[in-house]
Amino acid sequence: MIIEPPLVRGLIAAQFPHWADLPVKAAGATGTANAIYRLGADKAVRLPRTEGSAADVATEHRWLPLLASRLPFPVPLPLAQGVPDEAFPRPWSVCTWLHGANPIPGDGSSVSELLAADLAELVLALRRIDPADAPPAYRSEPLASRDTETTEALAALGGVLDRASATAAWHEALAAEPFTGRPVWVHGDLQPGNVLVAGGRLTAVIDFGCTGLADPAVDLIAAWYLLTSGARETFRTAVAADDATWRRGRGWALSIALMELAHYRETNPVMARIAAHVIAEILTDHSRTRVRPPSSP
Considering only CA atoms, which of 100, 89, 107, 117 is closest in space to residue 44? Predict the structure, then answer.
């Protein structure tokens, strides 16, 4: 379904006429889950692109006010929930507009130790939130359960990347001690399109469609999606990630990036570039840290 400003204006006029005079402006076209439009100066309209992302609307309206009260960085606050109609067949939402820009992998934000510290503060704050009654995160499954899909993505990317190195990095992640503790709150998708930055600092966190309870390693994907090597170490120290958790986090980032690159390289160049960058960062890390067998006497 093509989502354009006239559709958004019509939805607002029909369901929230008190906002009908506010200007509507597209906020970018890279999102795969939602089309985002700015409404006036301080509101955003989020229209799900798929049935899966439509199911996130109720979750975000239920949990974002709670998370906002407990997190050290701004998150979108729901203002109104639209209902399906003849013009648009899915639930949708109006929320607060947050200022900042999506970071570009490898830019100045990625090397900022201040951003690394901010991300660690966010992750630790999420972990401290009471998990009572919280839903499972979108990525709440054990890392090992992704082996088949990840291996299929690796097979589809022959000739696109160093498949032998990527396979070795994936197998190393699978060999990490599995998570057996109590799941914690995670954002679940700390990627460039889901955070806002300014001046090398985190200004807001957006799109909580993947949020819920999971292995804390899931949010460590931020280390490879949002940071480069030096800042990555700052982040790891701040979140106190042990070796097993760090390896699972790297495995999560690798699995997600491989699937994204396999899926989007012909259809979404922005997502494909981000995924390729993440894979390159992971393979560089892996080559530096892998354990080499001892030499023969």
Answer: 100
Is the predicted pLDDT of residue 48 greater than 50, yes or no? yes
DSSP 17: G
201-205 and 195-198 as β-strands: parallel, antiparallel, unpaired? Answer: antiparallel
Q: Which residue, 189, 174, 152, 146, is CA-closest to 60?
A: 189
> Which tens digits make up the pLDDT trace of 122-157?
999 999 999 999 999 999 999 999 999 999 999 999
- Reading the block at residue 241, the tokens are 């990630």
> 148 Cβ partners below 8 Å, 6+ apart?
none
Q: Which residue is listed with tokens 């097993």?
A: 244
User: Count of alpha carbons within 13 Å of 193, Cβ hemisphere only?
Assistant: 21
Long-range contacts of 141-145 (CB under 8 A, 24+ apart): 142/178, 142/179, 142/215, 143/173, 143/174, 143/176, 143/178, 143/179, 143/215, 143/217, 143/248, 143/251, 143/252, 143/255, 144/174, 144/178
Go through the chain and tell me how many residues it has: 297
Determine phi and psi for 273, rounding to 5 degrees. Answer: -65, -40
Confidence of residue 293 (pLDDT cuts 50, 70, 90): very low
* Amino acid found at 32: T
